[in-house]
Amino acid sequence: MAALSPALAATATVRSGDTLQLGDAVYRLDGIDAPEVDQLCIDDHADPWSCGVEAREQLSKLIGGRSVRCEDLGPDKPLKTRKIGICAVDGDKVSLNQQMARAGFAVSADPAAKARVKDDVAAAKEALRGLWKGCFIAPAEFRSDKKDGTLLGAACRADRDREIRAVLFPEAPSAPPGCTIKGKFAVRARVTGNIGIYHLQGCPSYPATTEPDRWFCSEDDARASGFRRAFNCRAQKK
């Protein structure tokens, strides 16, 4: 790996299966796309599975409280305040980017990415590891609410297509642990170049948003997914 940032994992926070925070810097792991924290998949027993939460836990386990260094590859296009990085635990020869792909908890995100994970993803798919043992939809298609997107994984069944999609895109999704921000897809949000609007606790619109389409753990997560804050919301106090 190239010269890495001096940031250490003593202050690291894992925000999702492909995003971590080191001090004040937030890094999205280059080359991979892990399930969103509020994303559901189907496991190898045909049961609903909180794969987004599991992916976040998987990244936490790989780090295991050890120090992490990230190579800063510049700002992330969807959210300029976030960085793209190739990150590794001190002493490990394999990056966390590759390890998440090998474990089957991420798909390839960008063919031009510096982190080369295509072979790792293919190996996980062949071995039916992680997401690949069940049935899921690519995180990018989940974020865009593409309900007719391609189903991936060994447990996908053509004769259960409608039932599977109903699980992957529930009408009333449950909030993952620690995620309280409500998101709604909205045509009017397109005026600002977004696909939806998010509502914070304490905002007048929050209790009225009884059936959110998405749940977010932070405003950064919501903005990165293409949502803007409701105009009647003020910024949360830190």
Task: Give a verbal description of the structure.
It contains six helices and 15 strands. The chain is α+β, with helices and mostly antiparallel strands and 238 residues long. The model is unreliable at 1-10 (pLDDT under 50). The protein has a five-stranded mixed sheet. The protein has a four-stranded mixed sheet with strand order 14-12-13-15. It has helices at 51-63, 96-102, 118-127, 139-143, 161-168, 219-224; strands at residues 12-16, 19-22, 25-29, 32-33, 41-42, 48-49, 68-76, 79-89, 107-108, 136-137, 151-152, 181-185, 196-199, 214-216, 227-229.
- Gyration radius (Cα, Å) is 18 Å
In total, the number of strands is 15
> Ranges with pLDDT <50 over ≥5 residues?
1-10
Q: Can you count the helices? A: 6
Assembly state of the chains shown: single chain
Q: List the strand order in the largest sheet.
A: 1-2-3-8-7
Shape, per Cα inertia axes = globular
Portion of residues in helices? Answer: 10-25%
Distance between the termini: 36 Å
| Series of H and E elements | EEEEEEHEEHEHEHEHEEEHE
Main sheet properties: 5 strands, mixed
The proportion of strand residues reads: 25-35%
Mean pLDDT: 90
Structural class: alpha+beta
Any chance you could write out the topology, listing elements then pairs?
Layout: E1 12-16, E2 19-22, E3 25-29, E4 32-33, E5 41-42, E6 48-49, H1 51-63, E7 68-76, E8 79-89, H2 96-102, E9 107-108, H3 118-127, E10 136-137, H4 139-143, E11 151-152, H5 161-168, E12 181-185, E13 196-199, E14 214-216, H6 219-224, E15 227-229
Parallel strand pairs: 3-8, 13-15
Antiparallel strand pairs: 1-2, 2-3, 4-9, 5-6, 7-8, 10-11, 12-13, 12-14
Helix pairs in contact: 2-3
